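Recap from last week: sequence in, structure out.
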Amino acid sequence: MHRLLTSRAARGALLLASFTLLAAPGSSQQASGPIARYTIDAGTMSGMAAMAGGGGMGAAMGMMMGGGRSQAMHELVLRLGSTRAPASGAPAADHFLPAGVGLGASVPLVTPRSAPSEEQAIPGEKPKGRLLLYWGCGATPGPGQPIVIDFAKVAKGQMPPGLYMTGASIPQEWQIRVSNSRTYGDWPNGQTRKMVPANASLLGDHRIAGNYSPDIAFNLKQDFMPAITGRASPGAGGTTNLSWNALPQATGYYAWVFGAKENGDMVWWASSATQAFGGPVWDWISPGSVQKLIGQKIVMPPSQTSCTVPAAVGQAGADMLMGSLYAYGPEANFAYPPRPADPKIAWKPEWIARVRYRANTMWMLNGPDMGSMMSGADEEDMSDDRAPQQQKKKKKCGGGLGGMLAGAMGAGC
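Predicted structure tokens:
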């Protein structure tokens, strides 16, 4: 059964089933899967997140140590998936953009070449250290905290009691991947050296054309979200008070803190009232899913603009603590032909497109304010045209707790 569910054909069937459910909520209208699917994930990064996106973590650490300031930056993740093979030759597709985006007339959606996995175990390295998990806003941790994960024990197959694996109740939304597309293309990629300008605007006409999908065209009326600004300041009894500006477009907020000590111990705290670390909450999430997560007390409501990090978190990771805050935003959906209003008429779209928005910031706890990191940007700091996708890719662990444990145990990340 496991092999069946993880096969490529099964994943495609599950994707089609999920599309059918999403296409006509609350109705019995029949819908067939589209030929092409397209997604735009648009982000606004501020604080250390902007520096890491523009010049790598080296630039972010330089700013943290007083070597410059950062203005907000934008990110775009474009993905095209199709059920068709290229009409002729190699796969080719382009996203033709409004002039306000500032990336030229178009950017190429490149089909990645398959390559052997770089992930492999590091021989002779023994796991060491612990991971302490905390969650919830408040001066003191709630019952059952922290959950302590001893990496040496995990390597032997001993998982701590009470551990709730990440993402079990977080809704998974349809995604475009190489694995669920006959032909696939994306941007950023290794073919261009472009970065999204800080003053970029998404407003206007967008068109996607290629030799393996029908033409996709729509007009965007929602621009990038504003940047998050705020403070991370010391509170009573060793707590840390997080506060931020309310974004009008925000549908909810999620914060996390990660720290490490020289002895190998690490601490991870999340603002959720239940255990929810990494995974989908680090992604772009639809407003409907955010509402469900607010109901589950995983995501903070848009009316909330502050959260207290327990003192125990700072004590557990006193050598270095880094925090991050996500603001989930609106979503725009397009399709051709549009879904008929009459539920008795079957819907057979040629293509569907989804645009999602978010804003995020990153900072050192009790270090520079999130807002001060953005003001008075040094133009020289931002003049480097190196795109993050052009830098040599490092091995990555998967998102969430599983990837964290794999990295800590030297399992090839």
